[in-house]
């Protein structure tokens, strides 16, 4: 069992500027405790009994820290300005006599990182993660058995990239001796040698296993960008994941929202009671507003307005608040396009409806002809991005080009695309975008929001309000001045949304869409194998929600099938198309392709139980014969 840890802490941290003028970077504060001390506490909790710190720059800070922790021994590298991390490690050779964990002083990480290494039976293990996009990564190349072959900061210096170095490594004592021998032979030419290069240097004689741990919350803090990322996303995520709370029963929601959430999002709602008018809570809402904007636009030119309510509240807020006397053209190719028409009707808006089939791509030429031939001046066009009725993905980029050509402001219902499908509001010419907390963001239901172009929103302030609670400009102006909603917000739901945003930021929208797509592919391949068909062709599909044609046999009943899945921990959703019998399966939320594989297996068992597979064989013949 590993009982020794070594922390490399000699560096000057010059990229952090004034922050490291009077302290080493290991003494950057998060939650009123230096990050290196947090690391030390985690090591002690994991049973480490001896900690050797290789110091250099402002070594006195570590020596003062050691007076409070008898387990710590500090060893100075007086040549820290002229040497690299391997020289600091080599300088500790008289204080190391056993296997040890090697860490860098500027890391924050989950405690499970230590647990993985300590309990790994291999003698040498380099901890790695999936790529984080930190812009200062050390990339790792391995052989087919996941043993180290090379490391580099430049991707083009490697044959392939397997993972990113975390900065925590378990080192067998003979391996350390080999590193020291390699270093001795290298110091005449390169005193700046890093320990990573020493590991690469001995990798042809020692099997250094690379353990890639996905979904690990961690970061190294080398510059201001890293520090901001640590403060806003990584450190809150570490705290959320390290709460000592029991797991919540996991249900797989394959309905189109709310989606399956992580336990960290669920538990984010458990907070001390707070009045939402306090500055502390205003800061939470400001964080949410800023981060939601940054997912799709530049906050300098766009802003996010929050409402308590379902996603429809955001759509209604836009339509009732930004349309003047001129007409809005509403694209209706599904239940949610139809809903926008119903909202327009309820408010007596001057609107024109463009109808299109729910399973076919939009005819852009026909939309343009409608704009050109309209007797009414069209000021706005409203369209659903991903039509949740079917999974049809509307081409909002091309529609945005049309709107730009005719000086029309575009309104997009991005309820089931925001947070999964990349959107650039400026490039796509979107003036207003509506979404909610409970779909691809993987938060709880109850928060609707509008991302708006600021100058377009400012142009609406003179329009006569048609709505009080959902008046967009009033909500925007009040939040701008006070960091508050005008009316009582859903406090716990907003805390959960903050956590969900952090998790979305860490996973990345493109990576999340890749995960969703993998689940969708399992679904499509599965239903095709079972003889079911989906409504929208693959090339026009959002890969987020799928309308599936119901089995056409007397023994089929949707409610019975729903209840069957519900008993097994899955929820599916009925169809919403007039004249076509469908049910819907979404593949969003905190699920993986493994969950979808289990769903397909359950679906097969259900279809067998109602005789669908038998009847299909009788009609089409057994494909095996």
UniProtKB/TrEMBL annotation:
GO terms for molecular function: 2-aminoethylphosphonate-pyruvate transaminase activity; nucleotidyltransferase activity. Residues 5-160 form the MobA-like NTP transferase domain. Residues 270-546 form the Aminotransferase class V domain. The modification N6-(pyridoxal phosphate)lysine is found at residue 439. Keywords: Aminotransferase, Pyridoxal phosphate, Pyruvate, Transferase. Its EC number is 2.6.1.37. One of its GO terms (biological process) is organic phosphonate catabolic process. It comes from the Bacteria. Its cofactor is pyridoxal 5'-phosphate. It catalyses: (2-aminoethyl)phosphonate + pyruvate = phosphonoacetaldehyde + L-alanine. Involved in phosphonate degradation. Belongs to the class-V pyridoxal-phosphate-dependent aminotransferase family. PhnW subfamily. Homodimer. This is 2-aminoethylphosphonate--pyruvate transaminase. It comes from Saccharococcus caldoxylosilyticus.
């Amino acid at each position: 069992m590993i009982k020794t840890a070594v922390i490399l802490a000699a560096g000057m941290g010059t990229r952090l500027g004034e922050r490291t003028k009077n302290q080493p970077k290991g003494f950057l504060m998060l939650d009123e405790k230096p990050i290196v001390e947090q690391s030390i506490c985690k090591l002690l909790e994991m049973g480490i009994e001896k900690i050797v710190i290789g110091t250099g720059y402002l070594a006195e800070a570590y020596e003062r820290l050691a007076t409070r922790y008898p387990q710590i021994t500090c060893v100075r590298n007086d040549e820290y300005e002229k040497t690299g991390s391997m020289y600091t490690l080599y300088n500790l050779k008289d204080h190391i006599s056993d296997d040890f964990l090697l860490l860098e002083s500027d890391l924050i990480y989950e405690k499970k990182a230590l647990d993985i290494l300590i309990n790994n039976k291999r003698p040498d293990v380099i901890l790695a993660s999936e790529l984080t996009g930190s812009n200062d990564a050390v990339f790792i190349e391995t052989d087919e058995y996941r043993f180290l072959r090379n490391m580099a900061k430049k991707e083009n210096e490697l044959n392939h990239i397997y993972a990113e170095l975390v900065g925590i490594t378990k080192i067998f004592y003979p391996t350390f001796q080999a590193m020291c021998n390699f270093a001795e032979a290298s110091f005449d030419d390169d005193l700046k040698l890093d320990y990573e290069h020493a590991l690469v240097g001995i990798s042809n004689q020692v099997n250094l296993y690379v353990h890639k741990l996905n979904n690990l919350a961690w970061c190294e803090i080398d510059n201001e960008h890293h520090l901001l990322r640590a403060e806003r996303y990584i450190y809150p995520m570490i705290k959320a994941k390290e709460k000592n709370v029991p797991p919540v029963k996991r249900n797989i929601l394959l309905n189109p929202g709310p989606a399956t959430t992580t336990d960290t999002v669920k538990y984010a709602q458990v907070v001390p009671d707070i009045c939402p008018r306090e500055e502390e809570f205003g800061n939470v809402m400001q964080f949410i507003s800023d981060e939601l904007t940054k997912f799709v636009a530049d906050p300098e030119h766009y802003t996010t307005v929050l409402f308590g309510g379902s996603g429809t509240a955001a759509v209604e807020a836009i339509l009732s608040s930004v349309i003047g006397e001129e007409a809005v053209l509403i694209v209706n190719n599904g239940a949610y396009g139809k809903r926008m028409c119903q909202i327009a009707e309820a408010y007596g808006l001057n609107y024109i409806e463009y109808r299109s089939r729910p399973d076919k791509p939009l005819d852009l030429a026909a939309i343009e002809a409608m704009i050109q031939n309209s007797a009414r001046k069209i000021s706005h066009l409203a369209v659903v991005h991903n039509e949740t009725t079917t999974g049809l993905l509307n081409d909002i980029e091309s529609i945005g080009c049309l709107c730009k050509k005719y000086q029309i402001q575009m309104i997009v219902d991005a309820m089931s695309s925001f947070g999964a499908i990349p959107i650039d509001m400026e490039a796509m010419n979107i003036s207003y975008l509506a979404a909610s907390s409970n779909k691809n963001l993987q938060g709880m239901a109850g928060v609707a929001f509008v991302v708006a172009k600021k100058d377009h929103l400012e142009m609406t302030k003179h329009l006569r309000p048609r709505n009080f609670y959902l008046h967009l400009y009033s909500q925007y102006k009040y939040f701008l001045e006070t960091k508050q909603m005008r009316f009582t917000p859903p406090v716990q739901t907003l805390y959960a949304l903050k956590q969900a945003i952090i998790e979305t930021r860490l996973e990345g929208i493109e990576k999340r869409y890749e995960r969703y797509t993998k689940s969708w592919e399992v679904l499509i391949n599965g239903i095709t194998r079972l003889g079911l068909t989906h409504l929208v062709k693959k090339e026009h599909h959002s890969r987020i929600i799928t309308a599936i044609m119901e089995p056409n046999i007397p023994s089929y009943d949707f409610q019975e099938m729903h209840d069957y899945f519900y008993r097994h921990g899955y929820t599916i959703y009925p169809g919403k198309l007039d004249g076509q019998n469908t049910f819907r399966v979404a593949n969003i939320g905190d699920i993986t392709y493994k969950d979808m594989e289990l769903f397909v297996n359950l679906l097969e068992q259900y279809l067998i139980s109602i005789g669908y597979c038998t009847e299909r064989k009788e009609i089409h013949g057994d494909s095996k014969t």
